[in-house]
Specification:
single chain; about 230 residues; alpha+beta; 6 helices; about 35% helix; about 35% strand
C-alpha cells in the first residue's frame, strides 16, 4: 500500500462508520408498525393487516414476527384477549449494530412491553410505590417469557428474547438494590443501570391507563467485531 494514500483511506473508513451510525439511528420497519398497535384498542384484524404475512407465526391467541434488516433484528409478539380479540399485550425487541470505526461497532438493544396488568398485581398491599413498580416490571418480565414460549422452536425468537429478558432482569435487580433512585423509573430519563454485557442502560415505566403500563428499556455498548451480541 502506498503510504501517502493511507490518510485518505482512513478518512473514507471513518466516514463510512459515521454513515453506518446515522443508519443505526433510523427507526426500523417493524418499530413504526408496532407503534401503531395500541393495547386495549387495536384488534386482531387490524394487527394482522399491519403486520402482513411475511415471517408471521401464530397461535390461537397470539402472533409473532421477526424482521432482519441489515445488521439489525426485530421481534414483535402480540397477545389477544380470547373474548373480544383486542390486544392485551405487545412485546417489541430490537437488536441493532452500527460500525463506529473500523473493528469497533456499537451494539444496541431496545425493549418495549405494553400490557394490561392484572388487578391482583395492582391491588397487592405493597410497602411502598417502589415495591409496586418492581412488581409491575416483574410481571412484564414473566409475560415476555410466557409470550415467547409457544415460539420456542424458533431459535431467532429465543435468542432475541433471551437478551431482552437478561436486560430486564438486571434492571429489576439494580432497582431493588438502589431504592433511593427508584423515583427515576417514572421520569422521562428513566432509571439508569449498567448491564455486564449490554453496557449503559435505562428502564422507564409509563402508566397509560389505570391498568395499562408501558415499559421501555434500552442499552448500548461499544464492542469489537468479534463480540457482537
Amino acid at each position: 500500500m502506498n503510504k501517502k494514500h493511507l490518510p485518505l483511506i482512513l478518512l473514507i473508513l471513518v466516514l463510512f462508520g459515521t454513515g453506518a451510525g446515522c443508519q443505526a439511528n433510523k427507526p426500523l420497519p417493524m418499530q413504526e408498525v408496532f407503534a401503531r398497535i395500541v393495547v386495549g384498542r387495536s384488534d386482531a384484524s387490524e394487527v394482522l393487516n399491519l403486520l402482513g404475512e411475511k415471517g408471521l407465526l401464530h397461535t390461537a391467541e397470539s402472533v409473532s414476527v421477526i424482521n432482519q434488516h441489515g445488521w439489525s433484528r426485530e421481534l414483535g409478539i402480540v397477545q389477544f384477549n380470547a373474548e373480544d380479540s383486542l390486544v392485551r399485550r405487545k412485546d417489541y425487541v430490537q437488536v441493532r449494530s452500527g460500525m463506529l470505526v473500523p473493528m469497533l461497532s456499537e451494539e444496541r438493544i431496545y425493549l418495549q412491553v405494553q400490557t394490561m396488568v392484572p388487578q391482583e398485581v395492582l391491588d397487592e398491599p405493597y410497602e411502598n410505590d417502589t415495591q409496586k413498580h418492581i412488581a409491575i416490571l416483574e410481571h412484564c418480565r414473566k409475560a415476555l417469557v410466557s409470550d415467547a414460549k409457544p415460539f420456542e422452536q424458533d431459535q431467532k425468537t429465543m435468542s432475541i428474547v433471551g437478551l431482552a429478558r437478561s436486560a430486564l432482569r438486571e434492571a429489576i435487580l439494580q432497582l431493588t438494590d438502589r431504592p433511593r433512585e427508584a423515583n427515576k423509573l417514572l421520569t422521562n430519563q428513566g432509571f439508569d443501570f449498567t448491564h455486564t454485557v449490554m453496557g449503559k442502560s435505562y428502564v422507564r415505566l409509563v402508566q397509560e391507563q389505570e391498568n395499562i403500563f408501558t415499559l421501555h428499556l434500552a442499552g448500548s455498548d461499544t464492542v469489537d467485531m468479534f463480540n457482537t451480541w
